[in-house]
Amino acid sequence: MNIKPTDSELEILNILWTKGPSTVREVHEVLEKNKDAGYTTTLKLMQIMHDKGLLKRDVTNKSHVYTADVSQEKTQGQLVQRMIDNVFNGSASQLVMQALGSYKPNTEAVIVDDTGKVLRRVNNYEYLNFNFGPTLLSWIESKHPNTYAKILEA
């Protein structure tokens, strides 16, 4: 199944992936913390999502309970692939370069005093905890050697 949720549907899926089985009221309470959405709008959207095969509905109780009928991993994979195809012209490496480009300034931070005088420079990678795969690390080494050196230094 090709999963193409709208932004609003994706918000509901994220709630259900996090909370698990939930009533419309429970989903709506989470949604209304961040946006002005009416209960009937949430209800209608969840009914449409059920019809589209994005949600399962348990009708054994008075209040229907919904669960995501698509996996988070599969949905994320399809959305990333669509973004690679549409935004990066099919190039996953361009996506990775863009993502890493966002983090390049993170290799070093400057600590200043109240007057703006530089007290010291800090390698931010010393404070991060993550696991690079060998392919990604090789790519960083060839494309961004300074970033690679800072990662190894940390």
Structural class: alpha+beta
The strand order across the widest sheet is 1-3-2
Question: Average pLDDT across residues?
Answer: 85
Taking the sheet with the most strands, its summary is: 3 strands, antiparallel
The poorly predicted ranges are: none
Count of alpha and pi helical runs: 7
- The termini sit apart by 43 Å
Q: Multimeric state of these chains?
A: single chain
User: What string, H for helix and E for strand, traces the elements in order?
Assistant: HEHHEEHHEEHH
**Spatial shape:** elongated
Number of strands: 5
Approximate strand percentage: 5-15%
* Helix share, percent: 40-55%
Radius of gyration, whole Å: 22 Å
Folded structure, characterized:
The chain has 154 residues and is α+β, with helices and mostly antiparallel strands. It is built from seven helices and five strands; from the N terminus they run αβααββααββαα. It has helices at 7-19, 24-31, 39-52, 72-87, 92-103, 134-143, 145-153, and strands at 22-23, 55-58, 65-68, 108-112, 118-123. A three-stranded antiparallel sheet has the order 1-3-2. Helix 2 (24-31) crosses helix 3 and helix 6 crosses helix 7.
Write the SSE topology:
Layout: H1 7-19, E1 22-23, H2 24-31, H3 39-52, E2 55-58, E3 65-68, H4 72-87, H5 92-103, E4 108-112, E5 118-123, H6 134-143, H7 145-153
Antiparallel strand pairs: 1-3, 2-3, 4-5
Could you list some keywords that capture this structure?
two-stranded antiparallel sheet, elongated, 3-stranded antiparallel β-sheet, alpha+beta, 53% helix, 5 strands, 154 residues, 7 helices
